[in-house]
Write a structure and sequence with these properties.
Elements lengths: L9 E7 L3 E7 L5 E7 L5 H15 L4 H6 L1 E8 L4 H13 L5 E3 L11
Parallel strand pairs: 1-4, 4-5
Antiparallel strand pairs: 1-2, 2-3
Helix pairs in contact: 1-3
């Protein structure tokens, strides 16, 4: 990459279902790709990591490079709660993700008056 070109920033949406974990990757240049991996019911976070690795492989990046280049992950995951979610957040951080993890179904704090 030339020095005058800013690094691409990815946005990712992940849906953890009972059978499959789906991922949508916006590459920051107007292209969106979809990926799918099996969900592991005993460890739903493993399906998330598997589908992220598929996306990284297609982009010819390591998982760490993909996560370091990601601003935001939107996680729609009814299967991930409590310790599963905390474990996933920790695993993503160890792999290089420092962006924002958004849970659209998570309870929100009320707006300040």
């Amino acid at each position: 990459m030339s020095t005058d070109q800013a690094p691409r920033r990815f946005r990712i949406v992940i849906d953890v279902g009972g059978t499959f974990t789906d991922l949508g990757l916006d590459d920051g240049a107007g292209r969106v790709r979809a990926f799918k991996a099996s969900t592991t019911p005993a460890d739903p976070a493993q399906g998330v990591l598997s589908v992220l690795m598929k996306a990284a492989f297609e982009r010819r990046l390591s998982l760490t490079e993909l996560l370091e280049g990601t601003d935001q992950i939107v996680l729609a995951a009814d299967a991930l709660h409590g310790t599963d979610l905390a474990g996933l957040e920790e695993r993503l951080a160890r792999a290089g993700f420092a962006g924002r993890l958004v849970r659209p179904d998570a309870p929100r704090a009320p707006d300040a008056p």
